[in-house]
Amino acid sequence: MYKKLILLALLFSLTPSSLYAAESITVATTTATRNTGILEYLLPLLKQALNINVQIVAAEASEDALKLGQEGAVDVVLTHEEDLEKQLVDKGYFIDREDIMYDDYILLGPVHDPARIRGIKTATEAFKKIRSAKAAFVSRGDNSDTNMRENRIWAMTGVMPERSDTWYFTMEQGTGTPLTLAGDRQAYTLTSRVSWYSMENKGKPGLTIVLEGDPILHNQYGVMIVNPKNHKSVNYQSAMNFVIWLSSPAGQNAIAAFRDTTGNALYTPNAQ
User: Fold this and answer.
1) Do residues 96 and 119 share a domain?
2) Count of domains in the chain?
3) What pLDDT does residue 146 have?
4) Helix, strand, coil percentages for the chain (3-state, nearest 5)
5) Same domain for 20 and 58?
6) What is the mean pLDDT of residues 160-181?
7) What does pLDDT average to over the chain?
8) Which 3 state secondary structure label does DSSP give 101?
9) Are 10 and 79 found together in one domain?
10) How many helices and strands in the chain, by DSSP H and E?
11) By residue range, what is the domain housing residue 227?
12) Span 192-221, mean pLDDT?
């Protein structure tokens, strides 16, 4: 923290032109994060402040983006797999990790709520009731971050669903199709709030939020730098300035101000 504050003081006491000529870094993130438009919104602000060009490489899941970092294919990763991120820092693959922002997952279900989920406080108990009632459930089944969070919750119930379970439907596809199928089948499904908001322009598919707010549904985003001791190609100075800016009041205020096309706030900044 002390190092970060010193760097912040130095960074914002200088004009962009006095820092360096235009630099470039490559940042790995997920397709879901990129598709929200937040990076398209933030990067021009970053360029104006620091004169850094940022190339985005989007992977299907956080684990894939982190692998790019481990291999030294990028300078920075911006992902939302907090436990794994911290493990990789401990193993020396990454350094200077900072919490940046968060969003959350929600459990959707039919308006008539056949498994009687409303009023339940935890996702684990909700999933148990869905299994007990054999209520229809649609899973993305695509090893995405959403699918991994769903699997984590099923594991916490003590039993993973089987593909032979007639109430459990696995799509192995991205966001929109599972939500549409869940609506068609009047099924429960786990999704990100961002994905739910994206359905507003297409009409809600006969579903409603039946559970939200459980800490297990919290989705923390972190940013960290590929360890330059492992990969000499890493542009550490510019990567650090990228992390500092996202953590700074300017970056955090920009994240808070970001809205989707229908005016929804998608992320809550929480850098310390």
Assistant:
1) no
2) 2
3) 92
4) 45, 25, 35
5) yes
6) 83
7) 90
8) strand
9) yes
10) 12, 10
11) 2-103+220-269
12) 86
